[in-house]
Amino acid sequence: MDAIFTKAASALKEVRKELHRGLVGQEGLVDGLLMALLCGGHVLIEGVPGLAKTRAVLLLAGICKLTFKRLQFTPDLLPADIMGTRIYNHASGTFENRKGPVFASFVLADEINRAPAKVQSALLEAMQEKQVTIGDETYKLPAPFFVFATQNPVEQEGTYPLPEAQLDRFLFKLLVEYPSAAEEAAIVKMVMNETRLPEVRTLLDGETIIKLQEVCRRIHVEEKLIEYAVSLVQASRNIAALVADRADRIEYGASPRGAISLILAGRAHALLGERSSVEPDDIKAVARPVLRHRLILTYQALAHKENADDLVGSLLTSVKVP
After folding, report:
1. Of 193, 213, 233, which residue constitutes the final position of a domain?
2. Which residues pair with 139 in a beta bridge?
3. Are residues 117 and 139 in the same domain?
4. 73 CB contacts (<8 Å, ≥6 apart)?
5. For all residues of the chain together, what is the average pLDDT?
6. What's the DSSP call for residue 245?
7. DSSP class of residue 269?
8. What is residue 148's predicted lDDT score, i.e. its pLDDT?
9. To 10 degrees, what angle do helices 223-237 and 256-272 make?
């Protein structure tokens, strides 16, 4: 492995170690956050309350020397509360633009599904184009720019499902599960000793993150693996051709962003594994967090109590590995 990849992998190990000063377990969540940093992608984190979704993002923000804003989404939130608005300046007698809290490198959108679609969609331009339009002026967002959104899958009253167009802008959808008994005991002991977040070292800044992203883009990807990623996404749109008993399970498959994200995330997974080239197992490892939110299931799938992860598993089993 080249020295540049070894140095990047070593830096990421230090970030992982620092995250675990305030987190017990949750390796999937930690890996997802680190890969998102490397890919420059946004993350949707889903789990019931109390599983350290917000805590993980706050810890990562503490490790990264970047501007950070936390937005608590509520049903009465307006797009202007996030993006900014035009205000009248009495002193000058003119209108001027006031930027909203989205103008930060790290934006935590807490309980994003509590806000109506109009507010959720206001993030689309920011997430995709890394810019915000207020009135007739367009402003670039800081670089790098990340949106980390959390949502609770249990509560249905007073929540609004995210529009498919917005879901597609998230690199990953990470599912946070309950801890094991041993992990839960360790969590209780940690909080008993210190209720606040632990002090973490500042290990990364914006320039360092951008350099890590450049290193990640240098991870080698064979042409056959690109074809494999495309085959997985294509199969999600025509699952009946591969798995006859799943023919009526997916209404709409993943978009081309799904294939792009598989390759981006596969590179990041390889770098975390201290490898300078992507292997088929890297694509398989990231397939569920990359694709689960990009599949629109049919009523039949829900009636059979199948979820997107089950169907991604069927794709991984059926699509030939190069």
Report:
1. 213
2. 132
3. yes
4. 109, 110, 111, 112, 113, 114, 115, 119
5. 85
6. G
7. H
8. 92
9. 130
How far is the C-alpha of 101 from the C-alpha of 82, rounded, in Å?
Answer: 6
Q: Is 220 helix (H, G, I), strand (E, B) or coil?
A: strand
User: Which of 153, 186, 213 corresponds to the end of one domain?
Assistant: 213
Question: For 317, what's the count of Cα atoms within 13 Å in the CB-facing half-sphere?
Answer: 9
The Cα–Cα gap between 39 and 50 comes to: 27
Give 3-23 pLDDT, tens digit per residue.
Answer: 788 888 888 888 888 888 888
Beta strands in the chain (DSSP E): 42-46, 64-65, 68-72, 84-89, 94-99, 106-110, 131-134, 137-140, 146-151, 170-175, 204-205, 250-252, 296-297
The residue segments making up the domain with residue 182 are 3-213
DSSP label at 69? Answer: E
Helix (H, G, I), strand (E, B) or coil at 134: strand
Closest by CA to 129, choosing from 118, 143, 115, 116, is 143
Give residue 246's pLDDT.
Answer: 66
Mean pLDDT of 217-226: 92
Q: What is the pLDDT of residue 118?
A: 79
Q: How far apart are CA 289 and CA 46, in angstroms?
A: 11
With a cut of 80, say whether residue 184 has pLDDT above it. yes
